[in-house]
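Private note to self, pasted from the team thread so I don't lose it. Backbone tokens:
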């Protein structure tokens, strides 16, 4: 097996009670069967507490197929409702509608905390029974895993930055395990954004066995997707071009990848040629529509004319608000940031602002939005921090693109990569608009709020992907 992970992964450690957030609160925590059996055999007071703290899920949806996209969410399922306050009835209804990964889970407290999370933010099970007592989800979180077969040696000529390090092992069909660390975790977010160094990835041989049964027939597709993901990450890391030029080229490249995939039937992937459609074939882009070289306020004509793949304008913002505000809210921070975006950039005067109105109906709000974006970019460039958006794009490209192994839908995942950047950028803009500053901690908090909302909710991920699938 070959493991591929970002260079900072080996530095990641849970900081436990020093963390400003917690992986042990806010969502359901599933228990794998082996851990359940082990917990049922524990004696003494801790064993009694374990038995009293575990619930058995309904079995009506347990036989549903879990895809690799589902596994982005790990086994920590969201416990969301449309209202910030969740009653016991809401919780039961929410759980009954979810597709559990396992048959059992911990019974959470009224404030959605694991029953073994103490007042200091430490795990009682870890303290009493040791690290080996943790169930799979608690052991792995906040790590994300994707495993697939790849047919060819898909290394690049570069040994480090950006992209992937050199490896000689991927000859013939072999299992690839991609590992990322979710930036819903404060420490993972800190590691991703703290250094301006380009994000690069380590390829490492390991004797580990795959977590799941591998399908040898997907090897050619896996090799193709891995190669195209590497090309995409190189595009996003090309600092000779502006950020928005890179995004336009990334989407042009994604369309070419999708066109190639569309020509390949699910039953015959042997004709895949991973040598074509290199970066040099990607489309070039025009100037950045939100930050004109003159420093003047960008016009609608500037915004609408340059990016057939990335129309970064107020109309697009309204569409994002329509999509993202319709997602189930996992927690109050997400609801608060959506409310702030509506108040400041949609219509501050009208409580029932219709986001389907034309841009002219929101002229004042549109002006505030454009000014905030321009001021934010100016601030980030002056602080030497525009690399943070590059890191964000690379993070989501690594997390999402190879998950097209499930359904050949590479383009929708590429759109989600860009939408994730856009929504984070909009969230940043409203914080900057209100505070007149945007510091590195703000960056980490916003990315954490977004990741928690999208990466850890199957429902939100599915709804968002469906919306983006049919969008331009």
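Design output:
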């Amino acid at each position: 097996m070959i493991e591929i992970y970002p260079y900072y992964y080996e530095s990641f450690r849970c900081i436990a009670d020093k963390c400003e957030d917690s992986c042990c609160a806010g969502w359901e925590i599933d228990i794998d069967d082996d851990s359940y059996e082990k917990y049922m055999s524990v004696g003494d007071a801790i064993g009694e507490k374990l038995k009293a703290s575990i619930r058995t899920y309904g079995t009506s949806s347990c036989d549903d197929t879990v895809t690799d996209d589902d596994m982005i969410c790990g086994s920590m399922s969201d416990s969301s409702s449309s209202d910030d306050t969740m009653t016991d009835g809401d919780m039961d209804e929410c759980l009954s509608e979810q597709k559990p990964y396992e048959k059992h889970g911990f019974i959470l407290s009224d404030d959605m905390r694991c029953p073994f999370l103490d007042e200091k933010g430490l795990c009682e099970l870890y303290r009493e029974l040791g690290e080996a007592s943790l169930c799979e989800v608690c052991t792995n979180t906040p790590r994300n895993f994707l495993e697939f077969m790849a047919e060819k040696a898909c290394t690049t000529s570069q040994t480090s930055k950006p992209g992937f390090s050199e490896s000689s092992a991927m000859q013939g069909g072999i299992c690839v395990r991609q590992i990322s660390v979710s930036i819903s975790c404060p420490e993972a977010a800190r590691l991703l954004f703290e250094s301006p160094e380009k994000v690069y990835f380590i390829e490492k041989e390991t004797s580990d066995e795959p977590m799941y049964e591998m399908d040898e027939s997907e090897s050619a597709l896996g090799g193709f997707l891995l190669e195209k993901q590497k090309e995409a990450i190189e595009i996003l890391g090309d600092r000779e071009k502006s950020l928005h030029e890179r995004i336009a080229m990334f989407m042009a490249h994604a369309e070419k990848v999708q066109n190639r995939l569309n020509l390949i039937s699910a039953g015959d992937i042997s004709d895949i040629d991973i040598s074509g459609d290199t970066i040099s074939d990607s489309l070039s882009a025009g100037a950045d529509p939100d930050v004109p070289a003159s420093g003047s306020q960008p016009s609608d004509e500037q915004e609408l004319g340059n990016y057939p793949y990335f129309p970064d304008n107020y109309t697009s913002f309204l569409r994002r608000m329509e999509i993202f505000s319709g997602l189930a809210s996992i927690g109050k921070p997400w609801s608060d940031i959506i409310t702030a975006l509506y108040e400041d950039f949609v219509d501050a005067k009208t409580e029932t602002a219709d986001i389907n109105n034309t841009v002219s109906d929101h002229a004042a709000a549109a002006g505030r939005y454009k000014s905030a974006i321009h001021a934010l970019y100016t601030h980030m460039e002056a602080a030497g921090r525009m690399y943070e958006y590059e890191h964000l794009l690379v993070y989501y490209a690594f997390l999402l693109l190879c998950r097209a192994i499930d359904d050949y839908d590479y383009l929708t995942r590429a759109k989600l990569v860009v939408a994730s950047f856009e929504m984070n950028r909009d969230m940043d803009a409203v914080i900057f608009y209100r505070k007149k500053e945007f510091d590195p901690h703000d960056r980490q908090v916003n990315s954490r709020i977004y990741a928690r909302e999208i990466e850890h909710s199957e429902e939100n991920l599915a709804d968002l992907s469906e919306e983006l699938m049919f969008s331009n």
